[in-house]
Amino acid sequence: MSENTQTPNPPLWLAVLATAMAGGMGWGIRGQYGHETGAMIAGVLVSLVLVFLFCPNNRSIHVVRAAALGTIAMGFGGSMTYGQTVGLTHDSPLIGNWAAFRWGMLGLAIKGGVWIGFAGLFLGIGLGGKRYRPFEMFLLMLGMLMAVVFGWWLFNTPHDPDNQRLPFFYFSDHWQWEPGATLKHRPEIWGGLLTALVSGILYAALAKGDRLARNLALWGMLGGALGLPLGQALQASNAWNPGM
After folding, report:
1. Residues 72 and 111 in one domain
2. b/e burial code for range 151-190 (CB count within 10 A of at least 16 → b)
3. pTM
4. Nearest to 195 by CA among 158, 144, 156, 159
5. Domain co-membership, 101 together with 156
């Protein structure tokens, strides 16, 4: 955004409430579509609420660009599998298994942090007032894509369930949690996205001096790391205590 544009200061409760309502509605809708496309529905609603609250006086092209970046970035997280990670915390065969519960919650914290961190980073790039030229963005995306490949190799391989070879940090269901069960072992990509996110934050903070992009990314990571496990805790509590 423009450095000279006066920034409104809406009440914190209004920003939190409106964003939560928009995100909750978008997340409900996304269930009908799933994956990247579904995640972008929540992304566009949350991004529009934020830019309308905090940037009502900016030019429409700036607002649209920021909302578009936040929307696309929210879609990145949709490439991560997390259904079985949720299942570790509340599937019937695992009720009472605290080790599976803790591992599932850890996985949700990591995936949630990566997911919302991406949205914060790109929304901040759109709002921060630092100019990112098209070719610069192309190179940034290319570098982050290379980081995805490296992070996937580092954290999410090997994936050879037929020979019982899975990554050490594997947050989907497998034979350790349900011996003898017929399972579809999901390949994971969170490590690649985490590496790409860190590289994007470092570029924005160090190369561009973009404090807003850095701060929104870090706050997004914190919010996602807390929000997904806390939300799932409510669902898991119902599964673990059906009589309550």
Report:
1. no
2. bbeebbeeeebeeeebbeebbbbbeebbeeeeeebbebbb
3. 0.91
4. 144
5. yes
pLDDT of residue 218: 98
- Tell whether 243 is covered by a domain: no
Rama region for 180: left / alpha / beta (φ>0; ψ in -120 to 50; rest): left
pLDDT tens-digit readout, 132-185: 999 999 999 999 999 999 999 999 999 999 898 999 999 999 999 999 888 899
Q: Answer yes or no: are the C-beta atoms of 70 and 123 closer than 8 Å.
A: yes
Measure CA of the first residue to CA of the last residue in the chain; give whole Å. Answer: 50
3-state DSSP call for residue 96? coil
**179 and 101 in a common domain:** yes
Assess if residue 242 is contained within a domain.
no
- pLDDT over 90 (residue 242): no
| 106 shares a domain with 7 | no
Question: What one-letter code names the amino acid at 76?
Answer: F
Dihedral (C-alpha) 101, 236, 85, 19: value to the nearest 10 degrees? -130
* pLDDT (tens digit per residue) in 77-126: 989 999 999 999 999 999 999 999 999 999 999 999 999 999 999 999 99
Please name the residues in contact with 153: beta carbons below 8 A apart, sequence gap of 6 or more: none
Per the CB < 8 A criterion, the answer to whether 146 and 191 are in contact is no
pLDDT at 26: 87
Give CA–CA dist 244/58, Å, rounded.
50
Q: List helix spans (H) across 31-97.
A: 35-54, 60-76, 83-90
Instruction: Note down the domain range covering 113.
Output: 80-237
